[in-house]
Amino acid sequence: MQLALQEACKGRHQTWKNPLVGAVIVKDNHVLATGYHHHFGERHAERDAISKLTPEQLFNSTLYVTLEPCNHFGKQPPCSQLIVNKHIKRVVIAQIDPHKLVTGKGIAALKENGIQVATGILANEARKLNEHYTYFYETNQPWITVKQAISLDHKVAVRTNQRTKITNDLVYQKVHSERADYQAIVIGSSTAIIDNPSLLTNVHTDYSPIRIVLDRRGRLLKHLDLKLFTDQKAQTWIFTENKSLSSHPFNNKFVHCFFSKNDSIGAMINELKNQELQSIYVEGGPTLEKSFLDNYLVNELITYIAPDLLGANGVSAVSPSSFHHFSDVKIDKLNNNVRIDERKQNV
Ligand code: AOF
Ligand code: ZN
Fold first, then answer.
1. Can you identify the CATH homologous superfamily of domain 1-136?
2. Is residue 126 annotated as involved in ligand binding?
3. What residues form the catalytic site here (predicted)?
4. Residue 113's pLDDT band (boundaries 50, 70, 90)?
5. Which pTM was predicted?
6. CB-based contacts of 33: which residues, under 8 Å, 6+ apart?
7. Where would I find the beta strands (DSSP E) of the chain?
8. Which ipTM did the prediction report?
9. Residue 222 CB: number of other CB atoms within 10 A?
């Protein structure tokens, strides 16, 4: 199962909404084949491993797989049926699939066909491998991480309306790669206007995270030349409570505007849930972060701290209305900057 977990990791950043899954086929104490889920929509890990062997090799073999085999027709046909057809004798599973279409059904189908099934082997490691996927299907909520970059005196800019480079180049690289672990990146309209960010990632992915701007009042109407609206490098979604902005013709298939009467955050979360997008990286600014915290939507807070003091004119970092406890704190150094990663609960 350890090897199956390693195989699964080979698909990192390529499977988008689908889980990372690895499989290993063993017979007479020999590993005969390994496989993994390569790309979103393509064949599943079990089928990848099975495709490498002959019917004789597969007969009476044992399949180790990090996630319960599926038993439904999605973009791919059911793996359970393939396992039965190939006369595999035993299936060892790490994690039971939390996906509502699959959970328990794959195992039931295997057992009904006389296949021996063992579950729970390295289950925690497998859950960790797909922690956003697991959280999303277990709770019906996306995993939400707030990221902030602050000075030692808890400021995010030297003064209002001025972009300030606070953290070092290593942090810059780290943030650009960290974005690839999420399916959506969210900012407020002030950050969009002041920073004019691209919100792209430096990791090769088949699907870039969707860039989302929350613009309740429709301030973006005066800033339609921002990179997010013109670069055509990834999808950009706007959530607004302003009718003029929501009906503006963008004439650009990368930009979509969603109208909501009130509660742009709620509308955004609902849209992501409808599309089964499982994770959100909130990149500021402090006002938007405060809304997420005050609504108790934050699962994880990542704080990058630079050793400088920005002074009394600086813009303060987020301070929510009430107390928030974070556990499971991890601290790393990136040269002279510090990264603190803390969570409210583990998957
Ligand atoms: C994967 N890769 O290796 C396994 C998956 O739309 P489909 O047909 O690709 O089905 C996706 C679901 O199939 C996925 O959410 C999970 O429940 C199950 N197993 N999916 O993408 C795999 N084994
Ligand atoms: Zn499958």
1. Cytidine Deaminase, domain 2 (3.40.140.10)
2. no
3. 46
4. very high
5. 0.95
6. 24, 25, 49, 50, 52, 53, 57
7. 22-27, 30-36, 62-67, 90-95, 116-119, 143-150, 155-157, 184-188, 210-214, 236-240, 255-259, 279-282, 300-305, 315-316, 327-334, 337-343
8. 0.90
9. 9
Q: Which of 16, 70, 81 to mutate to test the pocket of ligand 1 (most atoms within 8 A of CB)?
A: 70
What is the position in ligand 1's atom list of the atom closest to the CA of 17? 15
Domain ranges in the chain are: 1-136, 141-343
Question: What count of residues does the chain have?
Answer: 347
Rounded CA gap, 313 and 286, in Å? 16
Atom of ligand 1 nearest to the CA of 41: 9
pLDDT of residue 259: 95
> Dihedrals φ, ψ of 67, to 5°?
-135, 145
Can you read off the two tokens belonging to residue 194? 């002041």
Structure tokens at 319: 């301070």
Cβ atoms of 158 and 165 within 8 Å: the answer is no
Q: Is 286 annotated for ligand binding?
A: yes
Taking the CA of residue 21 as reference, the ligand 1 atom at the shortest distance is: 3
**CATH assignment, 141-343:** 3.40.430.10
**86 touches ligand 1 (CB under 6 Å):** no
Catalytic residue (one of 7, 46, 178, 300): 46
Whether 185 contacts 176, CB under 8 Å: no
Q: How many CA atoms lie within 13 A of 112 on its CB side?
A: 9
Q: Assign 346 a pLDDT band (cuts: 50, 70, 90).
A: confident
**Mean local confidence (pLDDT), 90-95:** 98
Section 96-107 average pLDDT: 94
Rounded Cα–Cα distance for residues 231 and 218 (Å):
20
